[in-house]
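Progress report, Aim 2. The chain analyzed during this reporting quarter is listed below.
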Amino acid sequence: MNANLSMLKTYCFADLFEGLEESFNLTLNPQNLQEFSALSGDHNPLHTDPTYAKEKGFKDCVVHGMLHSAYYSALVGMHLPGKYALFQGIKVAFKNPLYAPADLRVWGKITHCNASFKTIEISAGIDALIGGGGGSYV
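Predicted structure tokens for the chain:
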């Protein structure tokens, strides 16, 4: 069994309610930026070249917004609600640049449950606990 599956929540719709919260912590490192660049094809020097990023007024390479937004998929698919989820959409605002390395907290809270359609809305965010700079919110 995959060790990450031990974190998999199995909330059924009947278990969900407005105000239910889940979160998890992770460490984002510079290697994650390199891997994401290779996977996504986004090799913009703002994300890959520290000299260029500093010339443009940033303190280091900026983490791809879609890299840290990908952790919302882990939030929904693993934690809130978990196994029985189908992620249908997202609106993200990047409040401040995020830099690696950083210890992050990804959190979510159910703000609306629709029993007729068996859908929920989640307010979520990613906060830098140590290092890193800013985060994002949905």
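The mean pLDDT is 91. Residues 65-79 form the longest helix (15 residues). These observations will guide the mutagenesis work planned for the next reporting period.
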